[in-house]
Specification:
mainly alpha, 122 residues
Length: 122
């Protein structure tokens, strides 16, 4: 790909990035300005996630040029391994936080258990 082709790719990617950013931002503004009456929060979450994934693909193809090599296999392997590692870290963190939240809730039986096992009486 020549220099003109890269410049064209960057411009198209930039314009699409701006469009997808505004496409996600405007429904949030509408949702907040309408006191959440036009559409539900679930639809808003779906819209924002949809445009986030679309933005991800724009970034991958137009800026990182993931698909423009003759053999993009290594780039794809590194990208997928990075995604898997990030997903593992995020999901494991959420699981740990949920488990801690469940086991350390104030007012649960854990406080009574600790007080009884340590012979602490109020």
């Amino acid at each position: 790909m020549n220099e003109r082709g890269y410049l064209r790719s960057y411009i198209i990617g930039f314009v699409l990035s701006i469009i997808f950013t505004l496409a996600a931002y405007i429904p949030v503004l509408i949702h907040l300005d309408s006191s959440r009456k036009i559409f539900s929060s679930e639809i808003l979450i779906f819209l924002v996630l949809f445009f986030a994934v679309a933005q991800l693909f724009v970034q991958l193809f137009f800026f990182l040029h993931l698909s423009q090599e003759k053999k993009p296999r290594w780039n794809l392997i590194f990208f997928l391994s990075t995604v898997i590692i990030i997903l593992l870290v995020v999901l494991a963190s959420l699981w740990i936080m949920q488990n801690l939240n469940y086991n350390m809730m104030p007012g649960s039986n854990i406080n009574t258990y600790i007080q009884d096992s340590e012979a602490i009486h109020k």
